[in-house]
Amino acid sequence: MRSTLRLANLVKEFESQKRTVRAVDDVSLDFPAGAFVTLLGPSGCGKTTVLRMIAGLETPTSGEIYLDDRPITAVPPNKRETAMVFQNYALFPHLTVFENVAYGLRLRKVPEAELRRAVAEKLEMMGLGSMADRQPNQLSGGQQQRVALARALVMSPKILLFDEPLSNLDAKLRIQVREDIRQLQRRLGVTTVYVTHDQEEAMAVSDYVVIMNAGRVEQAGPPEEIYYEPCSSFVADFIGGVNLIPARMSGPAEAVLLDRAVPVRNPFGAAVGQEVKLALRPEEVRLGEGPFAGTVERAIFLGRLTEYVIRVGGERLVAVVHGRHSRLSEGAVTNLDFNPGALVALTR
Ligand code: ATP
């Protein structure tokens, strides 16, 4: 059966140099059965502390954690049916790959034959079958990571937890391993909580992304929603490049931008006359025609796309264009427009 996880009003305070730090500030979240949920946010926002409370490695100051609707807040870590993959893998250096993976089952006193079968199956699943007798220092970073994952999965956890599992891998391997993790998670259907500060990684693997800021949940939703319907300038800015253009609402779904009335989406109910920030993704800017005129200040060739910094009136906009068509050089004057629905009025 797939498990659900629920956090209710979780608070965690640390005493640090006679000061109380509220690392997690009233976090409530629902993790649907089988979902891959990422906690995303800048350094210090509290995401690791939330993960450690789910694992039982930190005790909440207040609040409750429910696994399949049963409170587990007081259950010790080894009885929680959660398993964690750590950033530095936390493998035992003096044990073989086999014994590293077998460790938790030995603590559980699983009979030897059953243990051997379970470990061999997980090593095979992770492509580590031929490496069972090696020690961790005889493995590459990617292989050590797979051992850590096999060690977590062999416990048949109800909840799988990842704390920045890719940060010690190089850029290319990171993309491959994150795909491997995602496919494995889909196949097993295990409810997964994954901590990262890399927004692209979060969007690539997640069913739901939770954006955290200063100990609180700023926004939670599917990646597309977070990207296209950010609830605040913080979210819009954190989740990839965005233009945030000051404007004033001139109607329920209209704002005055650079002296011109433009249609905007107004999901947060900004009042007529209210000052807002219009969020605009760079790929939603159309160059070549349209009611606005701008001057290309910078053209940055990035291979698959070209990024333009364009001065329009008193504002600077970033636009991206794919492919090698319609290249503009620095100093060029161009007209521009925005895709329908691309401007979102943000009130904070
Ligand atoms: P990072 O990406 O840097 O790991 P994070 O979002 O995971 O950041 P946390 O590690 O959860 O953030 O930390 C949240 C806040 O709590 C930070 O201000 C941190 O300094 C503080 N904190 C975390 N653990 C402790 C501790 N054991 N004692 C005191 N303060 C702590």
Task: Present the secondary structure layout.
Elements lengths: L4 E12 L2 E13 L4 E5 L6 H9 L6 E6 L2 E2 L10 E4 L11 H11 L4 H14 L15 H13 L5 E5 L7 H18 L2 E6 L2 H7 L2 E6 L2 E6 L1 H6 L4 H6 L4 E9 L2 E4 L2 E4 L11 E6 L4 E17 L3 E8 L2 E8 L10 E6 L5 E3 L2
Parallel strand pairs: 3-8, 3-9, 6-7, 7-8
Antiparallel strand pairs: 1-2, 1-4, 4-5, 9-10, 11-12, 11-14, 12-13, 14-19, 15-16, 15-18, 16-17
Bound molecules: adenosine-5'-triphosphate.
Pfam family, one: ABC_tran
Keywords: ATP-binding, Nucleotide-binding, Transport
InterPro entries: AAA+_ATPase, ABC_transporter-like_ATP-bd, ABC_transporter-like_CS, ABC_transpr_MalK/UgpC-like, Mo/tungstate-bd_C_term_dom, P-loop_NTPase, Transp-assoc_OB_typ2
Taken as a percent bin, the fraction of beta residues is 35-45%
Shape: globular
What is the straight-line distance between the termini? 41 Å
Model regions low in confidence, pLDDT < 50 over at least 5 residues: none
Count of individual beta strands: 19
**Classification by helices and strands:** alpha+beta
**Topology pattern, helix = H, strand = E:** EEEHEEEHHHEHEHEEHHEEEEEEEEE
From the alpha-carbon coordinates, what is the Rg to the nearest angstrom? 24 Å
For the largest sheet, list the strands in their spatial order.
6-7-8-3-9-10
Largest sheet: 6 strands, mixed
> Could you estimate the helical fraction of the residues in percent?
10-25%
Summed up, the helix count is 8
Mean pLDDT: 92
The hetero compounds bound to this protein are: adenosine-5'-triphosphate
TL;DR of this structure?
This is Iron(III) transport system ATP-binding protein. The protein is an alpha+beta fold. The protein has helices at about 45-55, 95-105, 110-125, 140-155, 170-190, 200-205, 225-230, 235-240; strands spanning about 5-15, 20-30, 35-40, 60-65, 70, 80-85, 160-165, 190-195, 210-215, 215-220, 245-250, 255, 260-265, 275-280, 285-300, 305-310, 315-320, 335-340, 345.
